[in-house]
Amino acid sequence: MPERTAIYPGSFDPPTCGHLDLIERALRIFDRVVVAVARNREKQALFTVDERLEMLRSITADHRGVEVDAFTGLTADYARQRGAVALVRGLRVMSDFELELTMAITNQKLLPGLDTVCLMPSEQYLLLSSRIVREIAQFGGAVSGFVPPIVAERLQAKLRPTAEPKDGA
User: Fold this and answer.
1) Which of 11, 52, 130, 154 is catalytic?
2) Quick check: is 39 catalytic?
């Protein structure tokens, strides 16, 4: 039986425990999961693509069957190049459904036979998003329960405020 490969595309800015949860659960379904960081020039990212790849490789290093990569262009084209049978997407709340359904139908039109498998996050990650993590971190809040330790360290280093001049300076 041929290896069944799935692509888990996203921005992963930064990678969260919710992302890791979906990766681990996708590995129960597929032989190989390619975590694919989308290069999107239109989004203002906190971390560079290379930084996100590095963090993802670090947090998935002990997960056999995971590959981390980056791509530019259409997800369906990337899935075709990688020989993927499916895309993995997370559905957190009802508002995600309409967007994910639209993308799934579009990707299937672009690459007939490409399925989209939507996984619901574990309950503790149901409302977690990279955007929320960035906001918490930007205001100095603790993110340790939301991201793996290496990501928390990278957030702190990236967002550590520079020393402000003292009064009278």
Assistant:
1) 130
2) no
Is 63 one of the catalytic residues?
Answer: no
User: DSSP string of 33-52?
Assistant: EEEEEE--TTS--SS-HHHH
Active site residue 19: yes
**Is position 157 within any domain?**
no
CA-closest candidate to residue 52, choices 64, 34, 69, 27: 69
Is 9 a member of any domain?
Answer: yes
Catalytic residue among 43, 64, 160, 166: 43
The parent domain of residue 67 ranges over 5-126
Residue of 4, 25, 92, 158 with catalytic role: 92
Q: The domain that contains 101 carries what CATH number?
A: 3.40.50.620
What integer pLDDT is reported at residue 165 of this predicted model?
47
Give a yes or no: residue 95 inside a domain. yes
Indicate the number of domains in the chain.
Answer: 1
Rounded to whole angstroms, the Cα distance separating 129 from 125 reads: 8
Instruction: Give me the average pLDDT of each 10-residue run along the chain (169 residues).
Output: 92 97 97 96 89 98 97 97 97 85 96 96 91 92 94 91 50
